[in-house]
Specification:
The protein is of the alpha+beta class. It has two domains: 12-75, Orthogonal Bundle (Arc Repressor Mutant, subunit A); 80-236, Chorismate lyase (3-Layer(aba) Sandwich), CATH 3.40.1410. The protein contains seven helices and ten strands. The protein has helices at 12-26, 38-45, 49-61, 89-95, 114-120, 167-175, 193-199, and strands spanning 65-68, 72-75, 80-82, 100-110, 128-137, 140-150, 181-190, 206-215, 221-230, 234-236. The strands form three sheets. The protein has a six-stranded antiparallel β-sheet with strand order 4-5-6-9-8-7. It has a two-stranded antiparallel sheet with strand order 1-2. A hairpin with a 2-residue loop joins strand 5 and strand 6.
Length: 250
């Protein structure tokens, strides 16, 4: 590890944290690897253990590392910058240099619940395709997704391979159904038992849940999706937006 500059205006703990962060970003320290202890950092950089603790705190608060009680501090998986829960999972992952894939848990025609029927504007006898998938990035599970699809728009979709194909791409290329609009609500909560098992995380660990409606250009409902994302892997970003002036309503 590099030494610290005691004449710099940058605090010592921050210099140490940045040095370790650079080792993570360069690949020298890989996700899951244990970081040096407070004592080891203090000895390496000739600083107090208080300063060493501050450096580790900085890495944890920045999402670079995480703590395990009684075991130490470890390199965290890199965050995935998810855009509002509105876009195709496959497109989002590829835009960040990650390879998307899916593990299909269930793909079947079922009667919708009353809530889904209202959301998709279905008749009393209409059915839906219920598609449950674990979504993976570079082979690692990062999200669980349940999609309720208006099968009237894409009859036969239940027979397509949705483990290796993007649903949006299939809708466009095979069924001439073009997802153009989406709206989403996002909440944070703890992982339920089934979700935790699928996403290889602990029960109660933080997840972010996106509830998304997708529409055609004419605002015909295509699907309603509930996506459960690992909280330690995703940040949600809504992008730059103009703040209304006071005259436009507060």
């Amino acid at each position: 590890m590099a030494s610290v500059n005691r004449h710099s205006y940058v605090p010592l703990y921050l210099q140490i944290a940045r040095t370790i962060e650079q080792m993570v970003r360069s690949g020298e320290l890989q996700p899951g690897m244990q970081l040096p202890s407070e004592r080891e950092i203090a000895e390496q950089f000739s600083v107090s253990r208080v300063t060493a603790r501050q450096a580790l705190d900085e890495l944890v608060s920045g999402g670079i590392a995480y703590r395990v009680q009684g075991r130490g501090t470890f390199v965290a998986e890199p965050k995935i910058r998810e855009v509002s829960g509105l876009c195709s999972f496959s497109d989002d992952m590829r835009s960040q240099g990650l390879e998307p894939s899916s593990r299909v848990l269930s793909q079947k025609i079922v009667p919708p619940t009353d809530e889904i029927r209202r959301k998709l504007k279905l008749g009393p006898d209409d059915l839906i395709l219920q598609l449950d998938r674990v979504r993976l990035a570079d082979g690692r599970p990062v999200a669980f997704e349940r999609a309720s699809v208006n099968i009237k728009l894409c009859p036969g979709l239940e027979n397509d391979d949705l483990a290796t194909q993007s649903l949006f791409a299939l809708l466009r290329n095979k069924y001439d159904v073009y997802p153009e609009w989406a709206e989403a609500e996002i909440e944070a909560r703890g992982a339920l038992a089934e979700e935790a098992g699928l996403l290889e995380m602990g029960i109660g660990q933080p997840v972010m849940v996106a509830y998304r409606m997708t529409y055609t250009e004419e605002f015909e409902p295509i699907e309603y999706v509930i996506s459960v994302y690992r909280g330690d892997r995703f940040t949600f970003y809504v992008g730059r937006q103009r703040i209304p002036s006071p005259f436009e309503g507060e």
